[in-house]
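Schema walk-through. Below, the input block comes first and the output block second. Nothing else is stored per chain. Lengths vary across the set, and this one has 532 residues.
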Amino acid sequence: MTKDRLYLFDTTLRDGAQTSGIDFSVNEKIVIAGLLERLGVDYLEGGYPGANPTDTEFFSEKRTEKAIFTAFGMTKRAGRSAANDPGLQQILSSKSDACCFVAKAWDYHVKIALGCTNEENLDSIHETVTAAVAAGKEAMIDCEHFFDGYKANPDYAVDCARTAYQAGARWIVLCDTNGGTLPDEIYDIVTRVQEVVPGSHLGIHTHDDTGHAVANSLAAVDAGVRQVQGTLNGLGERCGNANLITLIPTLKLKPAFNERFELGVNDDQLKDITAISHAFDEILNRSPDRQAPYVGETAFATKAGIHASAILKDPQTYEHVAPENVGNQRRVLVSDQAGKSNLLEELSRVGIEVDKADPKLDRLLALVKEREAEGYAYEAADASFELLARRELGEVPRFFDVNSFRVMVERRFNAIGDLVTVSEAVVKVDVEGETRMSVAEGNGPVNALDMALRKDLGKYQSDIAGLELIDYKVRILNGGTGAVTRVLIESHDTKSHRRWFTIGVSSNIVDASFQALVDSITFALLKANGSD
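--- output ---
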């Protein structure tokens, strides 16, 4: 049976750029475009040339090799011709292969937002598509608010789609702009639209305001659309767009879709999807979602002992797809619910091979359970677990020993009379028999300790040159002023791009923080000195 071709349209650099706190530079856009090329998307929407200097510069040259380089813009303004609309002409003169124009498909928005008649809006759609085709561009129309518009005035919403199709648009994209439509509604409306526009010319663009963006996209595919729009990691304004990192594996791996449809993403590119997802988060300087479908660190993690035992016998017992197909890996978590099978699997994952009959395993398992009873959570702190295991198995060098540390927090007036709070830390360490004392000021006691501890480790100093503390979380495990505190630190090495988590537990928050800091630095040194 011949499979229908599904086309993937990525709008990370345009609609994804609407995310609060996101502001891509030209260089970042170039790097992200490279990731999208690696992934194998069909269309790469790079932004809105003419709307801002960054997008204008980005479209000053072609930025893709395989993907269709697409510019975003608006249909021509009512009351003027396409030739006399400077915004439209700038989009048409950009180095894009295709142009995607947003058009109002809800008569309420035509009246309120555009301030023109319904007929003038249809004329703008027709003339814009005609001008784009004449300029040698592949033309697309994003029918904004299509589903809400259809529910309010189905005849007019369909007229907008029909007009674009008859003018020569390659794709007419039905947009759930407010993100409030549900899958059954999507399926029903898309089915009806195909009475005037064939599914081979229809696309879907969904937002995640009800948590249904991926489900809505799949419903639209089932109903007949053949282009799917989305973003890397679901980036986008408000609650985000349909997540291509979730959609692509579903379309590739689930029989309901892979038996009917063909994608431009091959199996090798699919195996790269976890790395691409995490690399994108790296560019955004944010931590990857550990529970993200397919690509999250815990997407194929199992904690309960009976589940772990079954998985080790046959992974299909608790896995819906093989993790290696999406470049991820199986994790059997070590916790107070774990048995020896969990422990062996986790040790293997971090590169520690040990005979299952080794008596040290029983001691290590007992130690893990004892420490978790005290408040440690090694399932969330992989680096601290690896260090604990290697120490119990006698494999961690003593890079340094901490003799003592002291932290002072002082609130005072500075030289110009401003009230300031200053944190100062002193740390004494032994490195190969030589005592070193370092002093540092920081933005709070933990930052001061971190800076002092990393200030002078002798011959190991170059090994931690790229080390950064990027996240710090505190959790109170029981009530009262003497509560036990758990600190989880996420660290990052800018040289190796490795990330890891370490943990500390104490009734003293500074002591718990210091435990996690020492583990973080020790783990960095361990990896820098040959333990991979």
